[in-house]
Amino acid sequence: MTHARAALAAALALISSVPPAGAEDFRLSVPLDCTLGETCFIEDYVDNDPTQGRHRDFACGINSRDGHKGTDFALLDFGAIGEGVSVLAAAPGVVKRTRDSMPDDRLMRGVTSENACGNAVLIDHGGGWQTLYCHLRLGSVSVAPGDLVQPGDPLGLVGLSGQTNHPHVHLTLLRDGQVVDPFRPEATGTCGDPGPSLWTEPPAYTRTGLVTAGFSDAVPTLQAVGDGSARRPTLGPDEAMVVYAHLGYAQPGDVLTLSAESPAGTDLFRRAITLDSDQASQMQALGRKAPPSGWPAGEYLGRARLTRDGKVIAHRFAHVTVSN
């Protein structure tokens, strides 16, 4: 028997030998080689509101997106893509399928509903359980169909493939082909008291979140931020440059840091703002006028980072292009 056939036989034997797993004995570990609250955070959860056009996370909070089918573990720095951050198997199983052919493209050119997951790994855990890992870096997938993996085994590196414009790994949990929210496994599709989760070490949750962040040419109103009219994808070289952030359920004492970087990676402005309001919805902005010679042409990166007691609880990137 060849090595490939032997590996496949072992994989099939493992699948057939795993007894059907219920929510009481199936567990997940964090699928990213990072420290939550320091080098990464959970950006979006499974959407537990089946109504089209609306969303809510498992705790009835705002930290999800309409129709979102997984949990997003996001990095805080684009530079981490080049350095390499490992995507990790969340549970023992057998690699079922992989894809490693899509470019890392923040503009998402060539992305369709069929390849929105980007470079990916699908793992079968037996008992109907599967995990899907999306947006890996091109050329980084380090496993192949039939490989046996254990929790913490590297699968590849975080990238920008598929439908994403920032570095994160999207983890979808399936049972018998249906999405399961690991934070609310017994009642996915509803929200409230979550009960037991499927995490070996449940990540901390906060209802506070950053709804959005973006660039504008002036300090916008909350209404303009909410309806999207404030966002400017491009700016002229002589226009003011403003980074704004829309926050939900922030607490007094939370610290919001707003900043912008030039195409060369140097800071244009940065400020840490200690919040003193517990409004359910608020907006903060920071910016500066164009220099006398105008902004150099290129892509500018904005950041909105929210911390509580020194831990990162929310983060958003923003992008704008200056063209002469």
TrEMBL record:
<dbReference type="InterPro" id="IPR011055">
    <property type="entry name" value="Dup_hybrid_motif"/>
</dbReference>
<feature type="domain" description="M23ase beta-sheet core">
    <location>
        <begin position="68"/>
        <end position="182"/>
    </location>
</feature>
<dbReference type="GO" id="GO:0004222">
    <property type="term" value="F:metalloendopeptidase activity"/>
</dbReference>
<keyword id="KW-0732">Signal</keyword>
<dbReference type="InterPro" id="IPR016047">
    <property type="entry name" value="M23ase_b-sheet_dom"/>
</dbReference>
<dbReference type="Pfam" id="PF01551">
    <property type="entry name" value="Peptidase_M23"/>
</dbReference>
<dbReference type="InterPro" id="IPR050570">
    <property type="entry name" value="Cell_wall_metabolism_enzyme"/>
</dbReference>
<feature type="signal peptide">
    <location>
        <begin position="1"/>
        <end position="23"/>
    </location>
</feature>
<protein>
    <submittedName>
        <fullName>Peptidase, M23/M37 family protein</fullName>
    </submittedName>
</protein>
